[in-house]
Design goal:
Distance between the termini: 58 Å
Helix content: 10-25%
Shape: globular
Structural class: alpha/beta
Number of strands: 6
Number of helices: 8
Radius of gyration: 22 Å
Length: about 240
């Protein structure tokens, strides 16, 4: 009688937070799981991240025939759809290791630096209030959607001890990782109805208006090149 061959048991998988499926290389921390830290699971270098492209309020308005000034007025008055993302503005202060709360900052200056963005489907599905409609009536109570928060390049640099100027240089030189999201900058021109390509526009002005953002786990997984390291070598 031949011996019975028993298959080796599969290695136990690390349980996922709150029953969410385990996704290797993706950080499951956050406000609902605790503060982000450098002990978070690193992002796998084998996984190529795709940069999410979102609309700025100007592009949102253009889709619906609004001038940049009118679009800003609609946004500040809360008459646009809830944004899907927010970059910077100190939203993640106190939730990410190295990005501490500031006792002398009431948050107003930080929030003014925030950049909000909308997914194309959010903007396209929005219905503009027609001329003559009453806008002074109390809106129907609804739960506002919280946008996904991303770090600005300034906050990314602060986590790693970089000055604002140095962080900008790192970003412009391409020494930071690819951003997880980009808001504005004409990235979606020609891909969204109502946001047409402009003839004769080389895109430089639009690109300068773009704002890039990074998820906390992307920033924490990044390793700053030490002083004296060769940075001119081919990667």
């Amino acid at each position: 009688m031949s011996p019975t061959h028993l298959a080796a048991p599969a290695p136990a998988r690390r349980p996922s937070a709150i029953g969410r499926p385990h996704n290797p290389g993706v950080c499951l921390c956050g406000p609902q799981f605790g503060a982000h830290s450098r002990s978070c699971p690193p992002i796998s270098s084998k996984v190529r991240r795709v940069t999410l492209k979102c609309l700025s309020y100007k592009e949102y308005g253009e889709i619906h025939g609004l001038t940049a000034r009118s679009a800003r007025t609609y946004f500040e008055a809360g008459r646009l759809a809830d944004p899907d993302v927010v970059i910077g503005g100190g939203v993640l202060r106190g939730q990410v290791e190295g990005l501490e709360l500031r006792e002398d900052d009431d948050g107003r200056n930080s929030r003014s630096d925030a950049r909000y963005g909308w997914l194309p489907e959010t903007a396209v599905s929005w219905e503009r209030v027609g001329r003559g409609a009453r806008t002074d009536l109390a809106p129907v109570a609804r739960e506002r959607k919280q946008p996904t928060a991303y770090l600005s390049y300034k906050e990314f640099g602060e986590i790693h001890g970089l000055t604002e100027r140095s962080a900008r240089t790192y970003f412009e030189d391409g020494r930071l990782p690819d951003p997880d999201v980009v808001v504005g900058g004409g990235k979606l021109r020609g891909e969204v109805e109502g946001l047409e390509l402009r003839e004769g526009d080389d895109g430089r002005s639009s690109r300068s208006d773009a704002r890039s953002g990074w998820l906390p786990q992307t920033a924490l997984a990044w390793r700053r090149v030490g002083q004296g390291t060769r940075t001119d070598l081919q990667r």
